[in-house]
User: What shape does this take?
Amino acid sequence: MVVEPQRAAPGALRRWSVQALGLIARALSVWLGLILLLCLAIFAGQRLPLVSGMLALMAFFGSVLVAARTDRAEAPSITDVMATLRNHGVSLVAFSGVIAVAGALVWMFLLARPEVSWWNVLYTERNVVVALSDNWFVALRQVFVYSAYALGLLFFGLNIPGLTSFLQFPCTTLLGLPFRAAYQAGAAAQMKNLGPMLGVGLLFILLPVIAVLLLPPAVPLLYCYLGALAYVSFREIFLGIGENRARATAGLRLPGLRPLPDRPTQSP
Assistant: This one.
């Protein structure tokens, strides 16, 4: 199967952002609830950086899949969303595991300071929050800072040279491409759309920092937004679809347009 990525129309980043927010609004409660649970799990596993990294990746990839399921005519239920995630469970775990392990190896051999033990990527007591602050705002920041930090690093993990590319996951799960072919297609798409993709990368870096500083509870919403952003960019570049699918309204009537009751049949 030959897949040829397209060049997005001008104003792509702004257009993708509006479309991503539109998809989030369609299933906000279910979507945000699932991501919130994963963010809390990341906080609970703060001593296990590798596991926390996998959870952050699963939250992002899961958001891509939820966005794809939401981009349909019918409104998704929590059963539909869970079925979508379950159907792609192997890909979710495999992608998250491969990228988390690859990122850990890059950190161990290239980025770690000499005084830091290599096993800190598996277990660490550094910067662990033992007790939450009495100040509610500081406490919220303590809870969500780990998931925000992980989200800020995701874009680098999604662009490991020779291994991963930003749109590789949707190319595999939504187009059915093998891992290597999906990497090549995703890399080609990024080169054709370098400007918008650099803008997406900047959002990955800046938005988590802003959220932690100003509004820590917004971090789970950022996972939803950036996952939806990845989906709509994939949709336009690979499928040529530049807008969200319209919601079905069949069977719904305005109060003023309700049908009148049938008149009783009169005997002659």
Q: What stands out?
A: The chain has a mean pLDDT of 88. The chain has one domain: 12-113+135-241. Residues 12-113+135-241 form one domain.
